[in-house]
Specification:
This protein has 1 helix and 4 strands, in the order βββαβ. It has 77 residues and is α+β, with helices and mostly antiparallel strands. The chain has a domain of 48 residues. The protein has a 4-stranded mixed beta sheet, with helices on one face. 12% of the residues are buried. This is DUF2188 domain-containing protein.
């Protein structure tokens, strides 16, 4: 990928747009469709390439427990 190109990919249950060389411009989305639309629009507006990296949906947003590398669990009730 060249500087400024956009990659849409799944990241631990969320979809994100990563802008090559500009991490501060990265954005996260709840759905693949939202992320793809936003990534495509950004790329068009900035004359950049847009790539979508498909993955199987997990259906859940998870945060890893940094100590174990496993998803964190907790009581949200």
């Amino acid at each position: 990928m060249a500087d400024g190109d956009v990659e849409t990919r799944s990241n631990r249950g969320q979809w994100e747009n990563r802008v090559e060389g500009h991490p501060e411009l990265s954005q996260s989305f709840a759905s693949r469709d939202e992320a793809v639309d936003a990534g495509r629009l950004y790329a068009e507006e900035h004359g950049a390439a847009h790539t979508v990296v498909d993955s199987d949906p997990t259906g859940a947003i998870t945060d890893e427990d940094p100590a174990s590398g496993e998803p964190a669990s907790g009581d949200f009730g």
